[in-house]
Here is the input.
Amino acid sequence: MSDHPAQFTIGRLAKAADVNIDTVRFYERQGLLQPAPRTAGGYRLYGTADAQRLQFIRRAKTLGFSLEDIAELLRLTEDGHDRGKIKAIAQKRVADLESRIRELEKMRSVLAHHAGHCSGHGEVSGCPIIQALLDEPAA
Amino acid sequence: MSDHPAQFTIGRLAKAADVNIDTVRFYERQGLLQPAPRTAGGYRLYGTADAQRLQFIRRAKTLGFSLEDIAELLRLTEDGHDRGKIKAIAQKRVADLESRIRELEKMRSVLAHHAGHCSGHGEVSGCPIIQALLDEPAA
DNA sequence: TTAAAGCCTGGAGTCTACTCCAGGGTCAAT
DNA sequence: ATTGACCCTGGAGTAGACTCCAGGCTTTAA
Here is the structure.
C-alpha cells in the first residue's frame, strides 16, 4: 500500500497544482474551495479531494470559464442536481466563445485589409491604416 | 455657408462621439487628447479636429487596439514619422488577434465536444463535461 | 435676477483574478 | 534550544478602461 500523505499543507497543494499559494487562499475566500480544517497551530490541511477540486478549477479556466462560472459548476456537482444546468452552462460558454471569435475575426480581417494596402514606407499622411481610422464610419 | 459651431464644450463633444463625458477627461489625462483650451471660466473648448481624433480613438478600439497602442498611433501621426512603424503596429495587432482567435477556437472545440456527449439529463455524476474537468490531464 | 443645465477638480470605486507584503506564529530537524 | 522553512492574517497593489461622486463654479435662457 503506498503511503503518500492523506493530508498536506497549503504549500504542497499549491505546488502540486502549480498555482501560487496565495491563489489557493484566494479561492477559499471566493468560495471555490471549502475552508480547510486546521492543525492546532492554525495551518490549513488538505486532502486529495481538494487537489482534485483545484485541478478542476484549473481545467475549467483553460476552457475560458470565469471563476464565477466555475463556482456555479462546482455547486452543481455537489447537490443532487441534474445534467441539464451543466450542459446549459457549457453551451452558453460555447456560444460566448463563438461570438467572441467572430468579433475578433472581424477585427482581424478589417485590420489585415488596411495593413495590406500600406506600403510600409513614405510619410504617414495618406497611410491607408491611418486614413481608415480617420475617415471610416464609426463601427 | 453652414454655420455649425467651430467650438463646443465637452458635453457636446462627448455626445457627438457617443462616449461618456468622463471618458473624454480620462483620455485627456492619458494623453490621448490634447489638453483643450479653456474659456475664461475654465470650460474646455473643442473643435472639429478634436471630434475627429476622438472618432479615431473609437475606431481603433473597435479594432482591438489598447489605449496604449492608440496613443502610439496618434503620436506617429503627428511628427514626421514614416509608415513603417504604423504598419508594424498593425501587423503585430493582426498577429495578436490571430493567436487569440486560435486560443478561443481550441477552447470552443474542446468544450463543444464535451457538451456534445452530455445527454442533458440524469444525475451530475458521470456527466461527460464534469468528468472531463475532473479527469483530464491538466492543459 | 434667478434657476436650471452644464462644467470644474480630485479622488474614489468598479471589475477580474490574482499577487505581494509586513509582522508574527508554527513545525521539523539538528 | 535554535534555526530555517513554512504558515498565518489583514490589507494593499496590479492592470485596463473607465465611471461616479461631492462640493462648488459658470453659462444660458427666461
Summary: Residues 9, 20, 22-23, 26, 30, 39-43, 66-68 of chain B lie near DNA strand D (CB under 10 Å from a C1'). Residues 82-139 of chain B form one domain.
